[in-house]
Specification:
210 residues, alpha+beta, Alpha-Beta Plaits, 2 domains, 4-stranded antiparallel β-sheet, 8 strands
Length: 210
């Protein structure tokens, strides 16, 4: 594999949660996922490598592609299936063809965690103008988490939903940083925060600067 290739993210979701799957369905341009599916996000540089790796992944098993994105620096794709085995096997074959191991991925880093209580009505309206998930209601607590590389935010969000009764307002997982906005009562937002942090810290990989 060329020395300049970077496996920025290799992120497996064992079971998509209801809100997370519904949110992904609002933004995906590929095959639509549903609750309960397994999912795999792979992010890389150079970005154009994504076209070759998607081809490898979808030919390997019956897993379907939900996203194939190239932005200025990086490429990212997502595949999903009701069969966890298919998703894992597609990922394994991609790594094998690239001559890489899962340990070669970049370890996620938290860039920012904010817990904002009693959201003001005007700020709620500003956020609601561009969100693709649930409405942010004034008076709720807003949790904002930012991480690097970007695609890992999907794992953090899905794990947060497993542990807490929260609403997904928006998730952005393309670019240099990934961000999620979750809302709910303060105690549940704190539980979601802790779950997201724990999820990101559980992923092993190599260290990298922002």
């Amino acid at each position: 594999m060329a020395s300049e290739f970077s496996l920025r993210c290799y992120c497996y979701l064992d079971r998509m949660q209801p809100q997370y799957a519904a949110f992904v369905g609002t933004i995906t341009q590929g095959d639509l996922p549903v609750e309960g599916m397994a999912s795999l996000y792979i992010e890389m540089a150079p970005g154009n490598e994504v076209f070759r790796t998607v081809d490898i992944a979808v030919k390997a098993t019956e897993a379907k592609p939900g996203a194939q994105v190239v932005e200025r620096e990086f490429g990212m794709f997502e595949i999903h299936s009701l069969s966890q085995a298919d998703v894992l096997e597609s990922g394994r074959i991609v790594l094998d063809r690239l001559g890489l191991n899962i340990e070669d991925r970049i370890r996620p880093q938290l860039a920012s965690v904010q817990l904002i209580t009693n959201i003001d009505p005007y700020q709620a309206q500003l956020l609601n103008r561009w969100r693709r998930g649930s409405m942010l209601v004034p008076g709720q607590t807003l949790l904002v988490v930012e991480c690097f590389p970007a695609a890992y935010i999907n794992f953090a969000c899905n794990e947060a939903e497993k542990r807490a009764s929260i609403n997904i307002v928006h998730v952005s997982s393309v670019g240099r940083f990934g961000r999620m906005w979750l809302s709910g009562i303060e105690s549940e937002a704190k539980t979601a925060r802790d779950a997201a942090i724990q999820a990101l810290e559980s992923i092993e990989g190599v260290s990298s600067e922002y």
